[in-house]
Design brief:
By secondary structure, the chain is an alpha/beta fold. It has 2 domains: 8-84, lambda repressor-like DNA-binding domains (434 Repressor (Amino-terminal Domain), Orthogonal Bundle); 90-275, Endonuclease, Chain A. It has helices spanning 12-26, 31-38, 42-49, 57-66, 76-84, 92-99, 120-133, 138-154, 170-173, 179-193, 243-259, 263-275; strands at 104-109, 162-168, 198-203, 217-221, 227-232, 237-240. Helix 2 (31-38) packs across helix 3 and helix 7 (120-133) runs antiparallel to helix 8. The mean pLDDT is 88.
Length: 278
C-alpha cells in the first residue's frame, strides 16, 4: 500500500494514526504483519494510520495487545479516550478502561438507563437531546453513542463478567425516544435479566430514604479482587481506588440490593409498564 506522509498536528485522530505507524515501524512490521496480529485487515489499519478511519476502543485494545502495550500506562486505548474526552465527563474514560477488564460490575442509576443496558436508539435519543441543548456537538454525540456500543462489546467477552444493575424506578418511568423505541428499550431490560451472568433489580419509589444513593454509582471488582468505585456529579466523575473509601460504598450497595425489588418482581414491573397496566 502507498505510504503517505502523516501530519500528527492536524488533529487528534491524525496524531493517533502517526503514533500507530511509528510503533509498527519501530518493530519492523508491515501492515500485513500487524494485520495478522490484530485480526483487522491491512486496509483498515492503513485507514486508521492515515486518519481516514476513526480508531475505536476495540481496535486500540487489539493494537495494544499486538504491540505489547497493555498495562504500560501509554496504551493506544488511552489515546482513543483522550480523543473522545471532549464528549465525556472528566474521569469517565479512565473508568471505562477499568470496566472493560472487570470481573464484576455493579451499577446504581437514577433517571437514565445505564449505558451497558441501552439500545442504540435510546443512546442516540439522549445524545441528540444534548446536541439540541447546545452542550455537545453533533460529532461528540456520535462519539457518545460509539462509546456505549464499545462498552457493550467489551463486556461480551469470555468469560463474561457478572453484571449487577439496580435501577431507580425513575429510569423505567421516563420514556425516551418514540413509543416503539421505548418499548424496545424496556424489552432490552427484560432480556438482560434473563442472562446467566446478570442481576437486575428496581429500587421502587416506595423505598424512600432506604435508597441510600442519590447519584449514579458504579463499582468494579478487578481480576486481582481489588475494588474500584466511580461516582458522578453533574459536571465530573471521580474514580476511587483507595480501599478504605470503597469498602463502605460497597457495603451500602449491598444494603440497597437487599431493600430493592427481587429480579422476578422487577421484571414484572417492566412487563406491566409495557402492557400499560402500571
Amino acid at each position: 500500500m502507498n505510504r503517505n506522509d502523516l501530519s500528527p498536528e492536524a488533529s487528534p485522530r491524525a496524531a493517533f494514526g502517526a503514533r500507530l505507524r511509528s510503533l509498527r515501524e519501530a518493530r519492523g512490521w508491515t501492515l500485513d504483519d500487524l494485520s495478522e496480529r490484530m485480526e483487522y485487515s491491512a486496509s483498515h489499519i492503513s485507514g486508521v494510520e492515515n486518519a481516514n478511519r476513526a480508531p475505536t476502543v476495540k481496535f486500540a485494545q487489539r493494537a495494544d495487545r499486538a504491540l505489547e502495550l497493555m498495562g504500560t500506562g501509554e496504551t493506544l486505548a488511552n489515546d482513543v479516550f483522550r480523543i473522545k474526552s471532549g464528549s465525556l465527563l472528566e474521569g469517565f474514560p479512565e473508568y471505562v478502561l477499568s470496566e472493560g477488564r472487570a470481573t464484576e460490575v455493579r451499577y446504581f442509576e437514577t433517571g437514565i438507563i445505564p449505558g451497558l443496558l441501552q439500545t442504540e436508539a435510546y443512546a442516540q435519543a439522549l445524545a441528540q437531546s444534548a446536541v439540541r441543548r447546545g452542550t455537545i456537538t453533533a460529532e461528540q454525540a456520535r462519539e457518545r453513542v460509539a462509546v456505549v456500543a464499545e462498552r457493550q462489546d467489551a463486556l461480551r467477552r469470555t468469560p463474561a463478567p457478572l453484571v449487577m444493575a439496580v435501577l431507580d424506578e425513575s429510569c423505567v418511568r421516563r420514556p425516551i425516544g418514540t413509543t416503539a423505541e421505548w418499548d424496545t428499550q424496556l424489552s432490552r431490560l427484560m432480556e438482560f435479566a434473563e442472562q446467566p451472568d446478570t442481576v437486575f433489580q428496581l429500587a421502587p419509589f416506595s423505598m424512600g430514604v432506604r435508597r441510600a444513593f442519590n447519584l449514579p454509582l458504579y463499582i468494579l471488582t478487578m481480576a486481582d479482587r481489588s475494588i474500584v468505585a466511580y461516582a458522578e456529579s453533574a459536571t465530573r466523575g471521580h474514580l476511587e481506588r483507595d480501599g478504605k473509601f470503597v469498602a463502605p460504598i460497597l457495603s451500602t450497595y449491598y444494603q440497597l440490593q437487599a431493600h430493592a425489588l427481587s429480579q422476578p418482581d422487577s421484571v414484572a414491573v417492566i412487563r406491566q409498564i409495557r402492557e400499560g397496566t402500571s
